[in-house]
């Protein structure tokens, strides 16, 4: 008699035949040889994963001429509520299209693959930092209902599974439906985020956390969440994003 695990495996294989998993980079059906990786062999080579020197504050890629290990953006804004950040990829056209499909194209399955990739890449750094919980940047409930999911939460869950660290998707709540940050600049970004986040009802006390989001542009959103976390007793706030823009 077939067991539950064997039955699930058969059902998963049937589903994969009818609805084959797709590469998050090119969105083509994956070859059987690429299924475990979750990304096409060729696509993993073109994904702009940051491999060189990074900014010690935000994790942005640095050029060879940088001598103080800090990007131009962090030099201009050195005081932040978060302690340190990391990012998997530089934000280019390939990543832009991938994130767009992930957020607006109902490709929620990308979260498992990309979250696992982020977790694998930074597992050692996360362990050294003593992270106790992974927290996604929250969506307002209206935007969540429109999209059907929070892409940051899916990434955070993937990171949590890969690093064996608990994920707390409701630790922080977004209490104001803020304007899209890409439409704003400078002071307007900061004003847009005032009183936008609150700490939820949590029985768990965390001292060191990892915030997760899909993209870091100026860091305003992550900084606003970090401020609220520290105001409520968290001592160290690190972040990990799927991508990060270049320094201006």
Describe this structure in words.
By secondary structure, the chain is α/β, with parallel strands linked by helices. The chain has a single domain (47-244), classed as Rossmann fold (3-Layer(aba) Sandwich), CATH 3.40.50.2020. The protein has 9 helices and 6 strands, in the order αααβααβααβαββαβ. It has a 4-stranded parallel β-sheet with strand order 1-6-5-2. Helix 9 (220-231) links the parallel strand 5 (208-216) and strand 6 (236-244). The longest helix is centred in the middle third of the chain and has 20 residues, at 110-129.
Helix content: 25-40%
Order of helices and strands: HHHEHHEHHEHEEHE
Strand content: 5-15%
CATH architecture: 3-Layer(aba) Sandwich
What's the total helix number?
Answer: 9
Could you name the ranges where pLDDT drops below 50 across 5 or more consecutive residues?
none
Largest sheet: 4 strands, parallel
The quaternary organization reads as single chain
Number of strands: 6
The rounded Rg comes to 19 Å
Give the overall form. Answer: globular
Write the layout of secondary structure elements.
Blueprint: H1 4-18, H2 41-46, H3 72-76, E1 84-90, H4 93-104, H5 110-129, E2 133-136, H6 141-147, H7 151-163, E3 172-174, H8 187-192, E4 197-199, E5 208-216, H9 220-231, E6 236-244
Parallel strand pairs: 1-6, 2-5, 5-6
Antiparallel strand pairs: 3-4
Helix pairs in contact: 5-7
């Amino acid at each position: 008699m077939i067991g539950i695990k064997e039955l699930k495996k058969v059902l998963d294989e049937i589903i994969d035949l009818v609805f084959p998993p797709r590469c998050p980079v090119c969105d083509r059906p994956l070859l059987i040889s690429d299924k475990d990786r979750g990304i096409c062999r060729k696509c993993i080579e073109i994904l702009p994963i940051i491999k060189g020197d990074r900014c010690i504050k935000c994790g942005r890629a640095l050029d060879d001429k940088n001598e103080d290990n800090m990007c131009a953006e962090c030099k201009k804004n050195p005081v932040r509520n978060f302690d340190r950040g990391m990012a998997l990829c530089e934000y280019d056209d390939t990543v832009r299209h991938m994130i767009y499909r992930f957020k607006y194209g109902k490709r929620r399955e990308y979260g498992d693959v990309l979250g696992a990739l982020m977790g694998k890449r930074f597992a050692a750094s996360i362990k050294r930092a003593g992270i106790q919980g992974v927290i996604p940047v929250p969506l307002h409930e209206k935007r969540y209902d429109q999209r059907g999911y929070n892409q940051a939460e899916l990434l955070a869950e993937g990171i949590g599974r890969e690093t064996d660290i608990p994920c707390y998707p409701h630790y922080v709540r977004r209490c104001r439906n803020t304007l899209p940050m890409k439409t704003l600049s400078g002071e307007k970004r900061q004003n847009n985020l005032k009183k936008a986040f609150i700490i939820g009802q949590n029985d768990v006390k965390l001292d060191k956390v990892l915030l997760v989001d899909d993209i870091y542009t100026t860091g305003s959103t992550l900084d606003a969440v970090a401020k609220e976390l520290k105001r409520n007793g968290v001592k160290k706030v690190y972040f990990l994003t799927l991508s990060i823009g270049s320094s201006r």
